[in-house]
Write the structure tokens for this entry.
Amino acid sequence: MPVLPEQPAEEFVRDPDAVMRSFEGLGYIADRSLATAVYLMTKLRKPLLIEGHAGLGKTEVAKILASMLGTELIRLQCYEGLDISSAVYEWNYQKQLLAIRLQEGTEQSVEEKEKHIFGQEFLLERPLLKSVLSKESSPVLLIDEIDRADEAFEAFLLELLSEFQISVPEMGTIRAKHIPYVILTSNRTRELSDALKRRCLYHWIDYPSFEKEMSIVRTRLPGIEEELGMQVVRYVQAVRQLDLEKPPGVAETLDCAQAVISLGSHRLNAEVIEGTIGCVAKSMEDSVKLRSAEIDKVIPQTF
């Protein structure tokens, strides 16, 4: 990943234009609306919820922001059944048992023994607690694909998103010394609660225009031939109109372009597209739809 010139982190988020330049310097093409959302998140210190189709760079926003600010990226990947022990904290039971045995025969009271074994040294930090306990600087906390977690876990997040604190029953409330920059992403597999949305700034990432997608291709694949890049982008944008179950995102555009280059081709044709169909179609049904669209006829219209 490219590295920004040495300067104070505040300079990178001085205004939305500075955010755009900083992101571009790190290889991410951000439009002004996204740059403004990131800028406001850093100034208002509110979580930012980014929604959009898969493969459009939502997760990458957090990675780029962490690189831009020179701070730690802490990532929580959400999934169905995610619970507190995996996301927030867990007690180191083996270490606690050892401590209890070592305390046997001592004159400590029960309250003193309990206070000791439920101290922070016995706490296993998971991503959410780790973000609150950060001692050096504000980390970037990425809560990725929050829509995959269940509603109960989503409700648990509300305290962190509004107060930047976590309650541990045995220890009390732990408040963040350095408020983390929180980014949540969602592919909208389910609707998120109003309570969560109210606590966040919101941004929707849509499929890019031809010009923006070409800028992304040039930035991420600087060695690609201009004509080939234009062919790939036009082709993928045409595929998005085929009502596929999973339309290709920008990630698929880059995969397709790299695949064509790896095959030693300088131009798209039906044979090359057939060979790289797995870059843009991610299911058997979508592959069938793409083939039945008669690519041979799509190509002359598109290129």
